[in-house]
Design goal:
Elements (H helix, E strand, L loop, with lengths): L5 H5 L7 H15 L10 H15 L2 H10 L19 H9 L18 E7 L1 H6 L1 E12 L15 E2 L8 E8 L2 E8 L8 E2 L12 E12 L8 E4 L15 E7 L6 E3 L2 E8 L1 H6 L1 E6 L4 E6 L8 E4 L15 E7 L7 H13 L12 H6 L4
Parallel strand pairs: 1-9, 11-15
Antiparallel strand pairs: 2-7, 3-6, 4-5, 8-9, 10-11, 12-13, 14-15
Helix pairs in contact: 2-3
């Protein structure tokens, strides 16, 4: 069954920040929660739709997939108990009751590495053959001076005495279902669970430093501008148990002046003389990866299209190449000799065409400037 646009469901723009998305979700979830609307049978469906939309937009990977393709690889069967990324039941429960009994994002659990983007330019020939590129990626790596601990000398950081290393502190909160013990990030260690009294001088206590790594990227044939290659784990390195970030390679194809691309079809033009267009000829056309002998039929008209089968580009997922389409461009000489002028007048007369009059300011003046 088709699902609505998650941006439309939450009422946020496509460039909304993570905080704006979470704020919209919480506001709508409170409004349509079934417990708040016991007499509205549609509230539960609306509530689930809101949760499903948030499960897409709260997960950076799923949101990126939706922005590129209009859908995600997977759709959760239940937005609260059946998966669905970073949103769902956990955020809803936190909205009403806080992080009840949950552990915070302590350093022992780790910190995820950041995602990284690089841009690669390709030629049309590389679109046909595919390519292997080595790119420079600026990303975080574990600090060798402290082995990722963030402390001078690499000693493990001290456990926070306030939260006993959990990263969270508990409190009792009165709710509509009674007294509930809730947990919030520890104010002393800010949820880290550890305290660094002597930060590493190299990484300033972060546990990571910036590096420029060389990464090999395999680009398949048929790629188009704006398409992205996703390389999991090739982004910034995670700390502790945190996962490494991903690398997103965004591709662009350079526009060669002699070609215009529409999908797998390429368009170009061939300059022809009046004689070639009238009498026919065989000319050589330079394609992307080879030259083609092109038969010019006699009587070819200006703008007429001639087709070279399989002279275009391949589709992304394999298959035969598109066509190369050549448009005839008849070239008119700017100057002619007296002998050429005489022949052109005879040609016009034999064809019953109107006899041109002289025009010293234009092309006709060059062609037929002298009157007999």
């Amino acid at each position: 069954m088709a699902t609505r646009d998650p941006y439309e469901v939450l009422g946020v723009p496509r460039d909304a920040s993570a905080d704006e998305i979470k704020s919209a979700y919480r506001r709508l979830a409170r409004r349509y929660h079934p417990d708040v609307n016991p007499d509205d049978p549609q509230a539960e469906e609306k509530f689930k739709e809101i949760g499903g939309a948030y499960s897409v937009l709260s997960d950076p990977n799923r949101r990126a997939k939706f922005d590129r393709f209009g859908s995600t690889d997977e759709q959760p069967t239940d937005p609260f108990f059946g998966g669905g990324g970073a949103g769902g039941f956990t955020d809803l429960f936190e909205m009403f009751f806080g992080n009840m009994g949950q552990q915070g994002p302590s350093r022992a659990q780790g910190r995820n590495g950041e995602d990284v983007r690089v841009d690669i330019g390709l030629t049309l020939k590389e679109v046909i053959t595919g390519a292997h590129k080595e790119v420079a990626v600026n990303r975080t790596a574990l600090c060798n001076a402290c082995n990722g601990h963030g402390t001078e000398g690499g000693k493990p950081p001290e456990s926070c005495t306030t939260c006993k290393g959990s990263g969270m502190v508990s409190r009792i909160q009165n709710t509509f279902i009674g007294s509930v013990r809730t947990s919030t990030p520890c104010p002393t260690c800010r949820g880290e669970g550890t305290i660094i009294k002597d930060p590493c001088k190299v990484c300033k206590g972060m546990g990571t430093v910036m590096e420029t790594a060389r990464v090999n990227v395999t680009i398949p044939p048929g790629i188009e501008t704006g398409q992205t290659i996703h390389m999991p784990g090739q982004g910034g390195e995670g700390v502790g148990m945190g996962r490494s970030g991903d690398l997103y390679v965004v591709l662009s194809v350079s526009d060669e002046n002699r070609f215009e691309r529409q999908g797998t079809t390429l368009y170009t033009w061939a300059p022809l003389t009046f004689a070639q267009a009238s009498l026919g000829d065989t000319i050589s056309i330079e394609g992307v990866d080879q030259d083609y002998d092109l038969e010019i039929p006699h009587g070819t008209q200006p703008g007429e299209q001639l087709v070279v089968k399989n002279g275009g580009l391949p589709p992304l997922h394999g298959g035969k190449r598109g066509d190369l389409i050549i448009q005839a461009a008849i070239q008119v000489p700017k100057k002619v000799s007296e002998a050429q002028e005489k022949l052109l007048r005879e040609f016009a007369e034999l064809g019953g065409e109107p006899m041109p009059k002289g025009n010293s300011k234009g092309i006709l003046g060059n062609l037929f400037g002298k009157k007999k």
